[in-house]
């Protein structure tokens, strides 16, 4: 499953192509970095949504369950750390490519007020600027890759999490006959996700944004428990200590403040 998800995730590399098909101007990128639109409540709303889409509570649970399911030991920690570090940079690179793709096409042509409520809307908006191949083929491949990976991760997280609470067999190493509840929950979550996407009345973009905001609002609890475990429950050789502990604590507080305050301001503004 992990190898399959990696293969599907490679489709997201299409964003690295589309980002250069628009009209990128270096000075506009620098201006945006130096002078962000912080005077708008929407800015804080999107900051919170971005935090919630990067540090998702269920992704933390997924990684912990995946480590156990693969049978990793303490000797594997350096490789697991490197895997997480590389993955963090790759995800941010993809995110940057997505921003560049839309900013260098729609925003530079004064179309930043378009109503983009679905992938079809995004495709129709991008096609005049980057052509049919970019706006239809590459965008579809990239979104398919992202959606497929997300479906696998979310479904496995639900199946593993419920399995830990209920005590049923919960491993990808098990045959479906030996772990019917695990594979049943996994399939049910995928079916629910597909069903929601089939309703035209559902604004997928807004739904995703508010889900990310919900993730941000949950961060103090989820990361708080994680920080507590890392400081006091791990074996001494693996505990957070010294300056590194202080840096992690400051990062935790700032991240939670930005996520929670930005989400609340954006919702009620």
Describe this structure in words.
The chain is globular and about 55 Å long. The model has no long low-confidence stretch (mean pLDDT 86). The protein has helices at 2-9, 14-18, 26-34, 41-54, 57-69, 77-107, 119-166, 180-197, 204-233, 242-268. By secondary structure, the chain is mostly helical.
Order of helices and strands: HHHHHHHHHH
Nearest-angstrom radius of gyration? 20 Å
Mean pLDDT: 86
Name the beta content range. under 5%
Key terms for this structure?
10 helices; 269 residues; mainly alpha
Short account of what is shown:
Helices cover 75% and strands 0% of the residues. The chain has 269 residues and is mainly alpha-helical.
SSE layout and pairings?
Elements: H1 2-9, H2 14-18, H3 26-34, H4 41-54, H5 57-69, H6 77-107, H7 119-166, H8 180-197, H9 204-233, H10 242-268
Helix pairs in contact: 1-7, 4-9, 4-10, 5-7, 7-8, 9-10
